[in-house]
Amino acid sequence: MTELKKTSLLVLSLLLITLFSCENEPLDPGFLSQQEATNASLVGTWRVVSFSADVTSTTNVDGVERVVGNTITGSNRNIL
């Protein structure tokens, strides 16, 4: 009976340590610099006239690396 109490106490202690140890993880430095760089004068309603984005994705499965690149472009011709 005492062995069961010791085991359950150990399991409960490990569970509590696991649950509460990840509570205060630091944020990624890149995320912090993006938030600090916001400009309050840019807040508002915006209409997209045109955009262009390059997207690259790299996947490695069983030692085979696959790189896929896409360029996404668009424009809104119905601007008021």
Automatic annotation (TrEMBL):
Q: What are the protein's UniProt keywords? A: Signal
**Superkingdom classification of source:** Bacteria
Query: Does the keyword field hold Signal?
Result: yes
Q: Which PROSITE patterns match?
A: PROKAR_LIPOPROTEIN
Signal peptide positions are 1-23
Indicate what this protein is called per its UniProt record.
Answer: Lipocalin-like domain-containing protein
Organism lineage reads as: Bacteria, Pseudomonadati, Bacteroidota, Flavobacteriia, Flavobacteriales
